[in-house]
């Protein structure tokens, strides 16, 4: 296809504003799939994505559209993940296209994620076409939302499209706008090959599939190509496009988006943002802007049943094949036995992986508290990255500790503003901005990531009854007064419960943790002290009193079946406990104890 007839675009939107529904309509309207094949939300491939209503892997589809001017255009839609954890993938896919549809729910307006994503599009120099969706709903307020888009984002919304992705209104206009308002890609067919690696994933039949955007040059089947990042060379086995099923093509030229397979064994060998060129007469310089995505949140995953350790290893290795941004190494814990210390791009990423392990591989897991990566500066001048509070070096050798910080953007209705400010303040936030997006307050805070990873988002949802929207980006490291807090149960430290806390908040957290554990740990035949300590100093203490035998005897009574049932339940419950010293700690304690209410 000649460049003038190609349009590459993505759709940016806040969650639930209708991105997938609009993509489905565009696919349908261009007859890319027959109605029979058309499944709702075709682009969300994995079940788990569908259930959670989130799109994780970037997907792509090539549409052919006969426009009103009688010419046929090739429209490549790259579906970007909407969640902040995948910000780097979003940024790469943005650089692979020239324009975006900015979908805003006209009953809601601009939200925090709309902002984060649209700024990525603006950074990538996109032409942006605003689309006001859900105009079929009585609560739709297109004029108000247009004004808001201009005020808050600062882009012209006078020609925003009025669309109902659900009932099919404005779909034709959207296709015309893509052809006439978005620019054609640029590129030089005669120049050495430069293809951007936009995404890659593992396919059980084909091996690693690589999504590419050709910038310059031409890529053909059997070409020998070099991945410039690490210099590996592969021969292309298969080259094609997504319609949305895979279809082979003879070649991909400048401006085109498609896939290749090349007998690549692991997704790890294909770094998003890398440049692919020919082995011979290739490009000299890679495309700019490559940066590897690095895990920022770590936690331990342990099998509830320690006999399942090998199964867990297999499952983790399989998942890692398909997810280069997820890291793992073996870990042993005195309390939890053998498991893995795993690194994730963010909390959502962690949840997705944990869910898949439990659901697809049927392994019950204990997840330890997520921790961020601290920079521990030693007195000898060296720096250690601390992924696990249990590994914290002796404080006498430590000079200072730095923690990662984020810039959080929160939008919230006026009524809840006070609660949100209090929440951010409680989490050691520093206010950067408090402005209005139209009539809604928009607050920007500089917050320590470790105050956010655990339950910030849940708390935010609950104090605002679900009306707040939240987005964040990492802004770097800063020194603070951080200490390691240990928890001792029956005078023995439980490594899986150690955590890094700010010194000023240690007492409060320690007390809350001991109180929680007191509720969560069942009573034993003996008295159990539960303590929080910094170094050798106890800062909080609770005592779990001993169980009195006659209480149980009474409640079992004389009914034999009931007694047996209770005993069975006890046995099942026992399996979920972790024996620690002489004390059984239930699995939920490891996670609940760290939640702050
Ligand atoms: P994620 O994939 O989770 O980011 O969400 P999304 O932005 O893709 O939203 P999705 O397309 O899943 O739509 C969210 C909800 O809004 C679904 O229940 C849709 O049926 C509904 N919806 C989408 N477009 C319209 C519309 O034009 N009108 C109405 N009434 N509902 C719509």
From TrEMBL:
GO terms for cellular component: plasma membrane. CDD domains: EF4_II, EF4_III, LepA, lepA_C. Keywords: Cell membrane, Elongation factor, GTP-binding, Hydrolase, Membrane, Nucleotide-binding, Protein biosynthesis. It is found in: Cell membrane. InterPro entries: EF-4, EFG_III/V, EFG_V-like, EFTu-like_2, G_TR_CS, LepA_C_sf, LepA_CTD, LepA_IV. It is a peripheral membrane protein. GTP binds at residues 16-21, 133-136. GO terms for molecular function: GTP binding; GTPase activity; guanosine tetraphosphate binding; ribosome binding; translation elongation factor activity. PANTHER family: TRANSLATION FACTOR GUF1 HOMOLOG, CHLOROPLASTIC, TRANSLATION FACTOR GUF1-RELATED. This is Elongation factor 4. The gene is lepA.
């Amino acid at each position: 296809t000649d460049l003038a007839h190609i349009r590459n675009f993505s759709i940016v939107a806040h969650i639930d504003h209708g991105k997938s529904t609009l993509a489905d309509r565009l696919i349908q309207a261009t007859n890319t799939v027959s109605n029979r094949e058309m499944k709702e939300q075709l682009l969300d491939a994995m079940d788990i994505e569908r259930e959670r209503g989130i799109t994780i892997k970037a997907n792509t589809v090539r549409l052919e559209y006969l426009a009103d001017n009688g010419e046929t255009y090739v429209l490549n839609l790259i579906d970007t993940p909407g969640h902040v954890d995948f910000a780097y993938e979003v940024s790469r896919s943005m650089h692979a296209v020239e324009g975006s549809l900015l979908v805003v729910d006209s009953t809601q307006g601009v939200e925090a994620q709309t902002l984060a994503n649209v700024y990525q599009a603006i950074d990538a120099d996109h032409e942006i076409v605003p689309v006001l969706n859900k105009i079929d709903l009585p609560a739709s307020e297109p004029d108000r939302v247009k004004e808001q888009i201009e005020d808050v984002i600062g882009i012209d919304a006078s020609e925003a499209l009025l669309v109902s992705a659900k009932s099919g209104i404005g779909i034709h206009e959207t296709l015309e706008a893509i052809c006439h308002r978005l620019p054609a890609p640029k590129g030089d067919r005669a120049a050495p090959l430069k293809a951007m690696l936009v995404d890659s994933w593992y396919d059980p039949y084909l091996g690693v599939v690589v999504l590419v955007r050709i910038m310059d040059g031409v890529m053909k089947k059997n070409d020998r190509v070099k991945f410039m990042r690490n210099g590996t060379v592969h021969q292309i086995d298969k080259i094609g496009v997504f319609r949305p099923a895979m279809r082979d093509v003879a070649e991909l030229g400048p401006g085109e988006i498609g896939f290749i397979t090349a007998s690549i064994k692991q997704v790890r060998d294909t770094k998003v943002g890398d440049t692919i060129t020919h082995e011979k007469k290739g490009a000299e310089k890679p495309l700019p802007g490559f940066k590897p995505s690095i895990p920022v949140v770590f936690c331990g995953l342990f099998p509830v049943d320690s006999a399942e350790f090998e199964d867990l290893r297999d499952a983790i290795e399989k998942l890692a094949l398909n997810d280069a941004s997820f890291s793992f190494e073996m870990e042993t814990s005195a309390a939890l036995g053998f498991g893995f210390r795993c690194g994730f791009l963010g909390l959502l990423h962690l949840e997705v992986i944990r869910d898949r392990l439990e659901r697809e591989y049927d392994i019950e897991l204990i997840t330890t508290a997520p921790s961020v990566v601290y920079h521990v500066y030693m007195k000898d001048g060296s720096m250690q990255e601390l992924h696990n509070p249990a590994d914290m070096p002796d404080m006498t050798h430590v000079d200072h500790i730095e923690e990662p910080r984020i810039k959080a953007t929160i939008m919230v209705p006026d009524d809840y503003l006070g609660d949100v400010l209090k929440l951010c303040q409680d989490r050691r936030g520093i206010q950067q901005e408090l402005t209005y997006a139209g009539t809604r307050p928009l607050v920007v805070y500089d917050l320590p990531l470790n105050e956010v990873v655990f339950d910030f988002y849940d708390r935010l949802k609950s104090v605002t009854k679900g009306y707040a929207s939240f987005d964040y980006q990492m802004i770097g490291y800063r020194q603070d007064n951080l200490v390691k807090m240990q928890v001792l149960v029956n005078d023995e430290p439980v490594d899986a419960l150690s955590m890094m806390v700010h010194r000023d908040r240690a007492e409060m957290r320690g007390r809350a943790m001991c109180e929680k554990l007191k509720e969560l740990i069942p009573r034993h035949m003996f008295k159990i002290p539960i303590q929080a300590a910094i170094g050798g100093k106890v800062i909080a203490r609770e005592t779990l009193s001993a169980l009195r035998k006659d209480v149980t005897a009474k409640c079992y009574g004389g009914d034999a079946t009931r007694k047996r049932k209770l005993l069975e339940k006890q046995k099942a419950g026992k399996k979920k406990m972790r024996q620690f010293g002489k004390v059984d700690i239930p699995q939920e304690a490891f996670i609940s104890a760290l939640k702050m209410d």
